[in-house]
Amino acid sequence: xxxxxxxxxxxxxxxxxxxxxxxxxxxxxxxxxxxxxxxxxxxxxxxxxxxxxxxxxxxxxxxxxxxxxxxxxxxxxxxxxxxxxxxxxxxxxxxxxxxxxxxxxxxxxxxxxxxxxxxxxxxxxxxxxxxxxxxx
Length: 136
Hints:
Elements: H1 2-47, H2 53-66, E1 79-86, E2 91-96, H3 104-118, E3 126-131
Parallel strand pairs: 2-3
Antiparallel strand pairs: 1-2
């Protein structure tokens, strides 16, 4: 009889172990879902973030001072100012004298500087270079 009761106890212990593994799995998935929702909330905030024009232009001026736009075809590109034109996704317009001369690598450099300064983690950033009004 004692051997039989010990076998039953061993089976019950094995069943409890299996149930505890299952519960740990469920708890882990719950924790993972909570983390995922926190990340989604953060990305949503970044996606809808608005930057004031003054702060944006301060960062832009620092970036341009560190690395001027390259001259192309004997012409010097001068970036005058930037503004955020929309959110979701964040879109920035940078006004300059020769937007067609901006190389994609310089646009990427500006995007990286904006990301360093403002985050936008997990969110795309759209940057366009526009001709400043009144310039030929």
